[in-house]
TrEMBL record:
Gene Ontology MF: a single term: catalytic activity
GO biological process, one term: porphyrin-containing compound biosynthetic process
Domain Elp3/MiaA/NifB-like radical SAM core: 2-245
Top-level taxon: Eukaryota
GO cellular component terms attached to this protein's record: mitochondrion
Protein name, as recorded: RSAD1 protein
InterPro entries reported for this sequence: Coproporphyrinogen-III_oxidase (IPR034505), Elp3/MiaA/NifB-like_rSAM (IPR006638), HemN_C (IPR010723), rSAM (IPR007197), rSAM_sf (IPR058240)
Pfam families attached to this UniProt entry: HemN_C, Radical_SAM
Organism for this UniProt entry: Pluvianellus socialis (Magellanic plover)
Amino acid sequence: GAPCPQWPYCRKRCSYCNFNTYVVPAADEAAVRACLVRETRTLLRLGRVQSVTSVFFGGGTPSLASPATITAVLEAAAEAAHLPDGAEVTLEANPSSAGTPRLAGFRAAGINRLSIGVQVRVGLPRPSPCGPPCPPAATVLSPQSLDDAELRLLGREHTAAEARGAVEVARGLFPGRTSIDLIFGLPGQSRGAWARGLEAALGLCDDHVSLYQLTLERGTALAAQVSGGALPTPPQDLLADMYLTACTMLVAKGFWHYEVSNFARKGALSTHNLSYWRAEQYIGVGPGAHGRFVPWGEGGRSREARVQTLEPDAWMREVQSRGHGTRRRVVLSPLEQLEEVLALGLRTDEGVTHERWGRFSPHLSLEAAFGAPGEAEALQEQGWLVLDGG
């Protein structure tokens, strides 16, 4: 079992974000901590989890929580199930809340891997007479710089200097276990500037890199700017070129491209994220968290998709009254489970193993599903699908 505790609060909402996040003057951390602890215990016992394989603190901005909250949740997980000493325990961190004392506190609390959201220099272009306004600081920045102008476009709270400093501190405290998240495909971004920015980012951190193509989500500030014509729409072919350029660069620098968006050097891959892609059990804890597990503790026999109540105060009331805040639970049909096994497994370089498929489909083998004539055979002939002994 892999618990995924969510801290729902942020200091500021980024312009591209449509996650379940809340900006409040002051969160009642003691109350949230107590509810995270209680829900962790409840759901681990509900899933009859024997051993915790990994823990991932996401958000929101979990680095805004105090190390005491991290400690409390990990202690709750260790009480409800076995938490091995070497289990991967990741914290997502925002550079503005990732100073040395704070990160050292998280390490002492039990965090052993850090995932930092930074952003690389993109060289926003000079505006044409009918083009978008250019944020003011996009001009005289060296290639080694992260770009403050781009950070403002994204509505990020931290500065470029804070991002560089946070990564340097993190690598000192979590050597070989620091990951950086990079976004590409911003309005006005060029492939060359993206490549230069990626090169600069790799100078800061070469353990693990996650690449995310910017999605313009309806209802976000950035999407409104693009749909209103204030910013250009990124061309799809350019986005594909940016992705392939990054893949080529990273592999050339010794990264293992182990998942569509994820790259690791020297074995620094994320075991927690692999649990998603391998369709293993994971337990969402906190407002809006998602989970996939079998609720053996209440007589369940089938894998369920679960979503916790979105709004933090409502979620806390539910946890206080019944031990957990699960708002929606759907029993996944055998077909839905197989679709997830395939859709997630085919994101990885290991693919879907016969053994994993067999756990979800004891009666229909991979060969039977894909070896028959038809579309699958055509995909094999074209080299898009490989069906072998593994």
